[in-house]
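DM from R.C. (forwarded with permission)

"hey, sorry to bug you on a friday — could you get me a structure for this? deadline for the figure draft is monday and I only need the backbone to look sensible"
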Amino acid sequence: PAGSRRWRRLGPERAPKPHPQETRFLFGACMGATVFVQPLDLVKNRMQLSGEGAKTKEYKTSFHAVRSILRKEGIRGIYTGLSAGLLRQATYTTTRLGIYTILFEKLTKADGTPPNFFMKAGIGMTAGATGAFVGTPAEVALIRMTADGRLPPDQRRGYTNVFNALLRITREEGVLTLWRGCVPTMARAVVVNAAQLASYSQSKQFLLGSGYFRDNIFCHFCASMISGLVTTAASMPVDIAKTRIQNMRTIAGKPEYKNGLDVLLKVIRYEGFFSLWKGFTPYYARLGPHTVLTFIFLEQMNKFYKKFFLSA
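My reply, with the result:
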C-alpha cells in the first residue's frame, strides 16, 4: 500500500518491483538436484516393477536392488535415464513451482498474510496437475529407460537418450503414447504437490512459530524432510499405478492394464495390499533429499533476487 511504512522509507522509485516471469520459472529449475537423486529414482522404478503380477519379487530390498544393478550394469547403469530425468525437471518441476509461486503471490493479502493451509493445498494441486501434463512425455521416457536394464536383451527398447526415446515412441507407437498414463501422472502430481508444497509451507510456518528456529537453511532442511515424508506416504499408491502404465506393453493388441484403478486392484490381488508402497525406502530417500535441495535452492535464489535486484 502507498501509505505503508516500507513504501515511505523506500520512496516510489524504490518500491518493490514484481518478479519477472522468467525469474519465477527459473526458481523452479531444480535440475541440479536430479543429478544427486537419479540413482534412487531408478531403484524406486525397478522395485515398483519387481514381481509384477506375482507374489515373487525380483528384488528383496532396496539394497539388494542396488547391488544387483551395480553387478549387472555397472556404475553407468545406476545413472540410466539421467537425460530423461533432467528433461522432466526442466518441464514438470519448472512449470509447477513457477505456477505455484505466481498463484501464492496472487493470493497473499496486501498486509503480507499468506494463504491458509487449504488454499496452499489448492494452489499446489493446480500447479502440480498443470506441470504433470507438460512433463508426461519426459516421464514416459524416464520410466522406460530406467526399466530397460531389468529385461532380457532381446526385449529391451534400447533408447540411447531422452530425445531418441521421444522420437522412437512417436514413430513406433504414435504421438499420443507420449501422454500414456497422463491421468495417473496428473493424479500423482496433485497428491504430491498438495502434500509437498502445502506441507513444506505449513511445516516452515510451524517451525518458525515455535521460536526455536530462524528462517535459515537448517529450518528449510527440517521443513523439507517433514514435507518429503508426508508426500511419500500419500503418493506411493498413485505412483506405482503411473509407473506400470507408462512401462506396459501391448500384447496381441491388448494393453496389460486398462487404467490406474486396474493397476491398483491387480497389485492388491496378486502382490498384496502393502505392495502399493513397494519401494518406499528409495522413494523417500529420493524425494526427501530432492525436496530438501529443491526448497533450499528456491529459498536461496529468492533471497539472492530480493537482495541484489529488489534493493538495487
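R.C.: lifesaver. The two ends are 20 Å apart (CA to CA).
me: no worries. The mean pLDDT is 81.
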